[in-house]
């Protein structure tokens, strides 16, 4: 096992039915050869039968039998140990899966026994509001007529529900009316639910892990693995959903003092991670900084103008997100808003609802953490007052309660703002704001157009000081587009005029009633091309429904969706359009590859623990989930890695071997020579093309990457641009060339690849 207190790198695997624990164990040798030190697994506890992601845990006491059960987990651990690898596991403290009550013993018992259940306090249920509402019925007044009584259970189509003792006589509806729960129409879930859920997903019920007994019961199995030495790190899913994230993490740290702990905390631009007893985040902050480094900030005005011409829209990002967040607060999350308003019974209910919704829509980050988060509440109060001066009195009254740490409203409101941000921005505004979709990424800021090198260096240096063991990533199971799609889209920032001509022509020849969404779709197609037709169809439909402008999940518009799918088909079936789309994608692909290699090297070499999402060691054109959970062809990757290790120096070409070279050589150097990655400082680049390079020294290892490659070519290349070498001689791990002297001409260094990884020559042999 690694002898470091935290991983040197991780590799994320979406363990699931169809790629179970034994299949994952079969990757151990390959991952060791790749250079990673730890497997980073999707949740392993028993989830809803058939779950493809594992975030809907139904039984915290056991490993999912669909993944191979406890025996499979032990085989995985043995395989990892034999390969010298460790294990990081993903856990889900915020919620449990309740879509199939019979699969969740605790939930089943709550439905059967109500408040008398031993598990009644496990779930965040508002028992004072009467029966537990379960929104599973069809949206029809006679839906309960389909209820049946079978084998002592109530059945509604495929759904099964328990019957309380002594209540089983009579018609199905009579029996139903005696239960501790009430089956209601699915639409009522967004308005009247009596339990806290995950975002707007009624199939995921909130857990009260702030209760020590609930914490112990839901974490005992995971902590048993930690105590046995089988698990080295824990990734905590969605801490913002918890009542007291800081208290929870303190308890988890006390229970696993030596574990590497990272939290899926999404930080807004410029926001700092609270001073929690963790090692950092899961890396969305790094993703935004790295990807922005390869976007040309000078193109912002051009893309803003293009967006206005295409859509006729001149709304700011701030106004758009206020609109989408307010809609999320008052519609999708109306049941949560109602529960909050009920905590202020001495003020008019509708005014309280309006005030809380405005505060949530104006809240600048996912949630505040008292007392340090007081400034975020103050900012929200000021903005809410500006937009709704008619609510001044009630805003003041509500804000006073939100500042009182003893008030129940102050404890619950932060859970609400995080859900409003996620649903209003990530899952709605990102699909409406199509100005430049490479920036529309989890943890990103679409209004912040690009990251100049100086800004990136400040970010990375601060990270080295404050959070040196925080994760870095470019792709996850939650990203809206794969890293290489974003890398190719970044090229458009160097071609704003040409892109404007192309997309204007295409949208005029193949119009869509929703021009903003059409712009998003054309960008996505260009970024992922060639993409299989069925994948683009699935993406287009999901994205349009998420945008909730011309269609939606609750009430799809068949006419619009027909036009949408017809547009996707034209991309493939219209010979001229298909040829133009293909030609343009081919035109920007080489620069996209340059960006992809550059951002990958920067992410892997910068301060933090780098994660590689499954399959992304080669080019990949994934879109939003479930597309990014597609099976990975690991035999191809094994074969390519063997060729590299046999001495092949690949061209930057369609097979992606050049990216695999960058990934494997960088990870191996980090694994074998951690002493070369103990600091951070920018490396001076001087000359006419200095702005096209980003270079930094990690304490012996020096990473160099090309940025804005088209602009570089237009300006005549590197010319006399030089890199200062803090140590020499050095060897480039990608080409094998040795360099001496205090300076290097970038024309020489980057003549083969757009990236270089330099290490002291006497350190290279073991890594190569």
Description:
The protein contains 28 helices and 27 strands. With 768 residues, it is α/β, with parallel strands linked by helices. Among the domains are: 10-94 and 209-264, TIM Barrel; 101-206, Maltooligosyl trehalose synthase, domain 2 (2-Layer Sandwich); 298-435, no CATH class; 495-588, Orthogonal Bundle (Arc Repressor Mutant, subunit A), CATH 1.10.10.470. The model has no long low-confidence stretch (mean pLDDT 96).
* Share in helix: 40-55%
Please name the CATH architecture of one domain: Alpha-Beta Barrel
What does the overall shape look like? globular
Strand-residue proportion: 5-15%
Number of helices: 28
| Major sheet | 8 strands, parallel
Short description:
This protein has 768 residues and is an alpha/beta fold. The protein contains 28 helices and 27 strands. Among the domains are: 10-94 and 209-264, TIM Barrel (Alpha-Beta Barrel), CATH 3.20.20.80; 101-206, Maltooligosyl trehalose synthase, domain 2; 298-435, no CATH class; 495-588, Maltooligosyl trehalose synthase, domain 4 (Arc Repressor Mutant, subunit A), CATH 1.10.10.
Task: Jot down its keywords.
768 residues, alpha/beta, TIM Barrel, Maltooligosyl trehalose synthase, domain 2, eight-stranded parallel sheet, six-stranded antiparallel sheet, globular
């Amino acid at each position: 096992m690694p002898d470091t207190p935290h991983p040197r790198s991780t590799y994320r695997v979406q363990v699931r039915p169809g790629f179970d624990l034994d299949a994952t164990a079969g990757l151990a040798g390959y991952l060791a050869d790749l250079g990673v030190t730890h497997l980073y697994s999707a949740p392993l506890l028993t989830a809803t039968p058939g779950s493809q992601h594992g975030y809907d845990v139904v039984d915290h006491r056991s490993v999912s039998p669909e993944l191979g059960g406890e025996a499979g987990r032990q085989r995985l651990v043995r395989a990892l140990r034999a390969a010298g690898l460790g294990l990081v596991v993903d856990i889900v403290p915020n919620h449990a899966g309740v879509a199939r009550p019979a699969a969740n013993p605790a939930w089943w018992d709550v439905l059967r026994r109500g408040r008398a259940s031993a598990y009644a306090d496990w779930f965040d249920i508002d028992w004072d509001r009467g029966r537990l509402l379960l929104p599973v019925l069809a949206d029809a007044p006679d839906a309960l007529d389909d209820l049946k009584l079978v084998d002592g259970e109530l059945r509604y189509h495929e759904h099964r529900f328990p019957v309380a003792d002594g209540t089983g006589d009579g018609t199905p509806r009579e029996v139903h009316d005696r239960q501790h729960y009430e089956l209601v129409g699915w639409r009522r879930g967004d308005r009247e639910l009596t339990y806290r859920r995950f975002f707007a997903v009624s199939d995921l019920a909130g857990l009260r892990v702030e209760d020590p007994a609930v914490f112990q019961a839901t974490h005992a199995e995971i902590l048993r693995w930690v105590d046995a030495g089988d698990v080295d790190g824990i990734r905590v899913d969605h801490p913002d959903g918890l009542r007291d994230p800081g208290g929870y993490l303190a308890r988890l740290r006390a229970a696993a003092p030596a574990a590497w702990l990272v939290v899926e905390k999404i930080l807004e631009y410029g926001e700092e991670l609270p001073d929690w007893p963790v090692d950092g985040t899961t890396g969305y902050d790094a993703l935004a900084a790295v990807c922005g480094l390869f976007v040309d900030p000078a193109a912002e005005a051009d893309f803003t103008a293009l967006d206005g011409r295409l859509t006729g829209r001149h709304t700011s990002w701030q106004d758009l997100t206020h609109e989408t967040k307010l809609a999320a607060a008052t519609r999708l999350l109306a049941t949560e808003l109602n529960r909050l308003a009920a905590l202020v019974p001495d003020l008019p209910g509708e005014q309280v609802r309006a005030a809380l919704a405005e505060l949530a829509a104006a809240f600048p980050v996912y949630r505040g953490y008292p007392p340090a988060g007081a400034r975020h509440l103050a900012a929200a109060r000021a903005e809410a007052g500006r937009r709704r001066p008619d609510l001044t009195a009630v805003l003041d009254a509500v804000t006073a309660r939100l500042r009182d740490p003893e008030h129940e409203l102050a404890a619950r409101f932060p859970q609400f703002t995080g859900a409003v941000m996620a649903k209003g921005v990530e899952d709605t505004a990102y699909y409406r704001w199509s100005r430049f979709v490479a920036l529309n990424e989890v943890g990103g800021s679409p209004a912040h157009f690009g990251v100049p090198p100086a800004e990136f260096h400040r970010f990375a240096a601060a990270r080295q000081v404050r959070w040196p063991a925080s994760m870095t990533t470019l792709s996850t199971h939650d990203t809206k587009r794969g890293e290489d799609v974003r890398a190719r889209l970044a090229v458009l920032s160097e071609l704003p005029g040409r892109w404007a001509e192309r997309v204007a022509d295409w949208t005029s020849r193949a119009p869509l009633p929703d021009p903003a969404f059409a712009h998003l779709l054309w960008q996505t197609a260009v970024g992922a091309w060639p993409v299989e037709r069925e994948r683009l169809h699935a993406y287009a439909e999901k994205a349009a429904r998420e945008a909730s402008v011309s269609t939606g999940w609750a009430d799809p518009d068949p006419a619009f969706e027909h036009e949408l799918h017809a547009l996707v088909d034209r991309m493939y079936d219209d010979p001229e359009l298909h040829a133009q789309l293909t030609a343009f994608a081919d035109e920007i692909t080489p620069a996209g590859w340059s960006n992809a290699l550059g951002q990958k090297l920067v992410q892997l070499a910068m301060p933090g623990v780098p994660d590689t999402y499954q399959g992304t060691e080669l080019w990949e054109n994934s879109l939003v989930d479930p597309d990014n959970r597609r099976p990975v062809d690991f035999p191809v990757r094994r074969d390519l890695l063997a060729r590299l290790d046999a001495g092949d120096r690949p061209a930057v070409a369609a097979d992606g071997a050049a990216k695999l070279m960058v990934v494997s050589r960088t990870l191996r150097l980090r694994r074998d020579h951690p002493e070369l990655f103990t600091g951070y400082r920018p490396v001076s680049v001087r000359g006419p093309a200095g702005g096209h390079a980003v270079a930094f020294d990690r304490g012996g290892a020096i990473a160099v990457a090309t940025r804005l490659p088209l602009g570089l070519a237009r300006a005549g290349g590197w010319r006399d641009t030089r890199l200062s070498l803090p140590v020499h001689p050095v060897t480039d791990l990608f080409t094998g060339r040795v360099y001496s002297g205090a300076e290097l001409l970038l024309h020489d260094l980057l003549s083969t690849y757009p990236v270089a990884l330099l290490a002291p020559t006497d350190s290279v042999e073991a890594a190569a």
